[in-house]
């Protein structure tokens, strides 16, 4: 084609290319925790790396404290494309993929070192669980440790399984609901961002959460006791919409993957000290009483939790059976 129309077409193409090249890629990320929480700081570090390495061509907008979505809404919001990225407890994907509840099986993982190995990229457990989550339409970018679960008490410390009998207990996820029911308690699922209100009103007698949430959510203001049961590994996952991911350029994906790997490694390496420092802070700055389980109490809890394992295998099938076999190698 020659003449003025050719010049117009070329000019239009150049303008469109220039506009596309200079356009910012905006990734909105929903987070249920405050930005001051360790997970909030972790996604902030991701944002800084991505924006720096992309020279500002990729922007990450963080919406903390469940401003846009509560944790239970994140998997659907991300997989549907309602938002580009989100942070959610791994267990929130269990409605579609029951096998991902592995780390919530009571007392299966009892220390941060074993958890770090099992969740490392390339480990059979991590690989299988990432694959399970991906089938929902949300691609895992990195995992975030939230520590081992502790039990909270309003008026008394839940040192034994029978402490929970016929008492309302805040839980997260189906596995923890079964766990509390197995010991005779009355489980009440409550989103992490709503814990404070439920504890303050006395709607539950006991609760469970990660230790850093006691500080960042100021739960020490409304609960008096902590028991370091360490009964579940609290793991969060940062996910991105799979359709969007496939639409990104190789250059964009490389920047995001590298930033994700960097912040995951940093958080995992530092989490043990974060856990201990948080306990020390609570002991020094609040009126909460911190108690550990003795050997007899721990044995009683383990025995009471046994039915939950059978239920997990029944729901998760062969995938769950294989994952449990891998996990039991740590014991």
Structure commentary:
The chain is of the alpha/beta class. It has a single domain, classed as D-Maltodextrin-Binding Protein, domain 2, CATH 3.40.190. It is 48% helix and 18% strand. It contains eleven helices and ten strands. It has helices spanning 4-22, 38-53, 74-80, 112-118, 124-134, 173-182, 195-201, 211-216, 242-247, 250-285, 295-327; strands spanning 25-30, 58-63, 85-89, 138-153, 168-171, 186-189, 206-210, 225-227, 233-241, 289-291. Strands 1, 2, 3, 4, 7, 8, 9 and 10 form an eight-stranded mixed β-sheet that branches. Strands 5-6 form a two-stranded parallel sheet. Helix 2 links the parallel strand 1 (25-30) and strand 2 (58-63). 42% of the residues are buried. Residues 1-22 have low confidence and may be disordered.
Main features:
single chain; 331 residues; alpha/beta; D-Maltodextrin-Binding Protein, domain 2; eight-stranded mixed β-sheet; two-stranded parallel sheet; 11 helices; 10 strands; 48% helix; disordered N terminus
Strand content: 15-25%
Number of domains: 1
Helical fraction equals 40-55%
Q: Under the CATH scheme, which class?
A: Alpha Beta
Give the total of beta strands: 10
Summarize this entry quickly.
Helix content is 48%, strand content 18%.
Question: Layout of SSEs?
Answer:
Layout: H1 4-22, E1 25-30, H2 38-53, E2 58-63, H3 74-80, E3 85-89, H4 112-118, H5 124-134, E4 138-153, E5 168-171, H6 173-182, E6 186-189, H7 195-201, E7 206-210, H8 211-216, E8 225-227, E9 233-241, H9 242-247, H10 250-285, E10 289-291, H11 295-327
Parallel strand pairs: 1-2, 1-3, 5-6, 8-10
Antiparallel strand pairs: 3-9, 4-7, 4-8, 4-9
């Amino acid at each position: 084609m020659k003449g003025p129309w050719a010049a117009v077409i070329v000019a239009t193409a150049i303008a469109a290319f220039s506009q596309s090249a200079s356009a910012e890629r905006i990734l909105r990320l929903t987070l249920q925790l405050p930005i001051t929480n360790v997970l909030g700081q972790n996604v902030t570090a991701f944002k800084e790396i991505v924006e720096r390495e992309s020279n500002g061509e990729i922007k990450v907008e963080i919406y903390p404290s469940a401003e846009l979505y509560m944790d239970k809404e994140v998997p659907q919001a991300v997989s549907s494309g309602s938002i580009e990225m989100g942070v959610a407890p791994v267990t929130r994907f269990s409605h579609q993929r029951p096998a991902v509840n592995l780390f919530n099986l009571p007392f299966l993982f009892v220390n941060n070192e074993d958890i770090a190995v099992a969740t490392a990229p390339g480990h059979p457990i991590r690989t299988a669980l990432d694959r399970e989550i991906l089938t929902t339409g949300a691609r895992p970018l990195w995992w975030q440790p939230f520590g081992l679960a502790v039990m909270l008490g309003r008026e008394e410390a839940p040192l034994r399984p029978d402490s929970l009998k016929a008492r309302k207990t805040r839980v997260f996820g189906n596995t923890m609901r079964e766990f509390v029911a197995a010991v005779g308690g009355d489980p009440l699922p409550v989103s992490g961002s709503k814990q404070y209100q439920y504890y303050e009103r006395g709607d539950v007698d006991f609760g469970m959460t990660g230790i850093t949430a006691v500080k960042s959510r100021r739960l020490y203001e409304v609960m008096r006791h902590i028991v370091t049961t360490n009964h579940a590994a609290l793991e969060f996952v940062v996910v991105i919409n799979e359709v969007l991911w496939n639409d990104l350029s190789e250059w964009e994906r490389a920047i995001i993957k590298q930033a994700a790997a960097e912040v995951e490694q940093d958080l995992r390496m530092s989490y043990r000290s974060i856990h201990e420092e948080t306990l020390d802070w609570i002991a020094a700055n609040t009126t909460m009483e911190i108690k550990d389980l003795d050997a007899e109490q721990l044995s009683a809890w383990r025995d009471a939790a046994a039915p939950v394992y059978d239920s997990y295998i029944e729901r998760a099938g062969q995938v769950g059976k294989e994952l449990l076999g891998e996990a039991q190698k740590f014991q």
